[in-house]
Design brief:
alpha/beta, seven-stranded mixed sheet, 35 strands, 24% strand
């Protein structure tokens, strides 16, 4: 039986206001499910209504939302020209002296920006970009953390029609170069380092290496973040110099699908995919989510813990577009203890608190009872993403976090970098059921497909989207003929987006996402690509081949990351090799990439075309018989599967 943990209180929401507008147009819906059904059956009518409701500034009022519903190749809002930065800085119902950005940091004092100050800084940064020769279509990169300066640079670049991209400063040199070499940025903002908890991390050497590897960078902008007195690198300008000259706000309106920013996939099957998102798709999708799915508006203080290397950062800052105050945090979320994030609720009077499922489960495992440790009375919603949240996690939130009698909705969502949004999540008029995501998002035609490509209900299937969404990528950078884009999402089910997650959709319309159906790793709520592992590990002279898999924790914890290596001829596997692999992964990628175990095997399973078989290996480690996991006849060396079986049987409790 479904265990309902929260029911709508009946308070007036922005979704109610939207329903009233639809009723005036002759569209009446008795419940969320019928509204969702209409939103995906009549995409043109729904997205025109959503556009009017969130009131996006544009040259003309659109009369057509979806001019071509081909997938891929959908053509949205052909009549309009807009600018993401203009939509964000409109800051509806906020006064000039209202604080709209709060920057909390473990590296420096807090930063608070009023609406007037934010607009002024963006205008100054835009002028600085123009002086640096940045124009429409040029790429602007940030090797910087979740701080107001990164936001200002994003908005300034967008105001010009330049294209923004970011990497978190904990990314190693190779991870950064693999991404930005594809898009060739002309200007780079970089910090000198950062503090993670009480540990200082110097990044000056990495910045130098990145610049040396990217000849396209003409301007390096230095942000002294770890050490305010740090000298700028030779030839660099400073952040203060970039913002030195006053300017009036200005916005170049661009076509709906003009590139806004490039986000990167995790690099599972090669270099990370440079996913291009457009001004219109991101603006409309994000404002729809905040206004209708999350009921966020000018009275809210919105927080989601993220780094600039995760799409949730891009989502977080878009809350400005509905007039919310955004709260940004850079640092270790568990410093000085796991309760630190929850104390932020009290300190900043957060109304919407977003985090990852693994963090919630870590708090549960530690036995925290947060409602006894902090004043959480301002909260009305808690968001969870990054990994599936199991039933135990739902129960813990209502047992240990939500104060007795307080109206707090737990919103578990699932989406991806690919659409920079959620396919499934919550709504203010839908109950919260333990272990289940409440509903499919408005405008997202999500289905579960069986192996034959048929929709199923109540059964595990592939998460697919059968009709276009505005925030589906404009394309991949440099993929001129679209072949890489089509191969990423549309090869398995032509004309249908296959996302790569397992999902079960219940008869009630709730959803359960069960993890990845492909080889992408998901550790601690952060997706890691296998290709990045291989690039580092196999660059070591002792290693001839490698294969990595992630075994999820049944309770949604960090799980276990296992790396198999084949040693080069004449080399011996020992603790020194193990240490060298860990050091290389930590320094060149990130600490999350360091495996829990490294095992040497004689051979690894590869198909006749040379493809590594991560998914079959994972199945074998989970106990699937070899004959059910992979076809031996399709392998270069069929006995390689036996190596994996021997490893599994050697583990305690196998």
């Amino acid at each position: 039986m479904s265990e309902v943990l929260w029911r709508p209180s009946g308070r007036r929401t922005r979704l109610d206001d939207f329903r009233d507008e639809l009723a005036c147009l002759g569209h009446r819906f008795d419940d969320y499910e019928s509204l969702w059904r209409w939103s995906v059956d009549d995409l043109d009518a729904f997205w025109l209504a959503a556009w009017r409701f969130v009131d996006i500034p544009s040259d003309t009022a659109p009369t057509v939302a979806l001019a071509d519903d081909a997938m891929p190749g959908a053509h949205w809002f052909p009549q309009v020209r807009i600018n993401y930065a203009e939509a964000m800085l409109r800051l509806p119902d906020r006064a000039d002296d209202d604080v709209v950005v709060v920057g909390r940091s473990q590296s420096r004092d807090d930063v608070r920006l009023t609406a007037a100050e934010l607009r002024d800084q963006v205008a100054r940064a835009r002028a600085g970009l123009v002086r640096a020769g940045v124009g429409r279509g040029d790429r602007v990169a940030a090797y910087a953390p979740n701080v107001p300066e990164t936001l200002v640079l994003l908005l300034a670049a967008a105001s010009l029609g330049a294209v923004f991209t970011s990497c978190a400063p904990e990314f190693g040199t190779q991870s950064v170069v693999d991404r930005w070499r594809q898009v060739e940025p002309t200007l780079l903002l970089a910090v000198d380092g950062y503090r993670y908890g009480d540990k200082p991390v110097d990044r000056r050497a990495e910045v130098e290496q990145v610049c040396a590897a990217l000849p396209s960078v003409r301007t390096l902008v230095h942000l002294p973040y770890l050490d305010p007195g740090a000298a700028a690198p030779d030839g660099a300008t400073t952040w203060a110099e970039l913002l030195a000259e006053p300017a009036e706000p200005a916005f170049d309106r661009v076509p709906f699908d003009h590139p806004l920013y490039v986000l990167f996939s995790s690099g599972t099957t090669g270099l990370p995919k440079p996913i291009v998102h457009g001004h219109g798709g991101i603006t409309l999708e994000h404002l729809k989510c905040f206004a209708l799915q999350n009921d966020v508006g000018p009275g809210d203080r919105f927080f989601w813990f993220s780094t600039t290397g995760w799409m949730m950062w891009n989502y977080l800052v878009s809350a400005l577009g509905v007039g919310a105050t955004i709260v940004m945090l850079d640092g270790n979320p568990a410093h000085p203890d796991l309760g630190a994030l929850w104390r932020l609720v009290e300190q900043e009077r957060l109304t919407y608190f977003g985090t990852s499922a693994p963090y919630l489960l870590q708090c549960r495992k530690a036995g925290l009872v947060l409602r006894d440790e902090a004043d959480l009375s301002s909260l009305r919603a808690i968001g969870s993403t990054g990994a599936p949240l199991p039933t135990e996690g739902f129960r813990w939130v209502y047992d240990a976090v939500v104060p007795d009698g307080q109206d707090v909705q737990l919103v578990s969502i699932s989406g991806g970098t690919d659409v920079c949004s959620a396919f499934v999540g919550g709504a203010p008029d839908v109950p919260v059921v333990a272990g289940e995501i409440s509903c499919r998002a408005l405008g997202a035609a999500v289905q579960a497909y069986d192996l034959a490509g048929e929709p199923v209900v109540g059964e595990l299937g592939e998460l697919v989207v059968t009709r276009p969404m505005p925030s589906m990528p404009v394309g991949f950078w440099g993929d001129d003929d679209g072949s890489r884009y089509r191969a990423a999402y549309f090869e398995d089910f032509p004309g249908v987006w296959r996302h790569g997650d397992w999902i079960t959709i219940t008869a009630a319309g709730t959803c359960v996402v069960s993890g990845r159906s492909d080889a992408t790793l998901n550790r601690g709520g952060v997706r890691l690509g296998t290709a990045e592992f291989y690039g580092v590990v196999e660059s070591l002279p002792q290693v001839a081949d490698s294969l990595v898999v992630h075994l999820e924790d049944d309770e949604g914890g960090a799980g276990r990351l296992i790396l198999f290596v084949v040693m080069a001829e004449g080399e011996t596997f020992d603790d020194d090799v193990r240490h060298e692999i860990a050091t290389a992964l930590r320094s060149r990628l990130s600490p999350r990439h360091v495996p829990d175990d490294v095992a040497a095997v004689r051979a690894l399973p590869r198909t006749l075309s040379g493809k590594k078989l991560e998914v079959p290996v994972k199945k074998i480690l989970r106990g699937t018989p070899v004959e059910d996991a992979a076809a031996r006849g399709a392998l270069v060396d069929p006995t390689a599967l036996d190596e994996i079986v021997r490893y599994r049987e050697a583990q305690p409790g196998a």
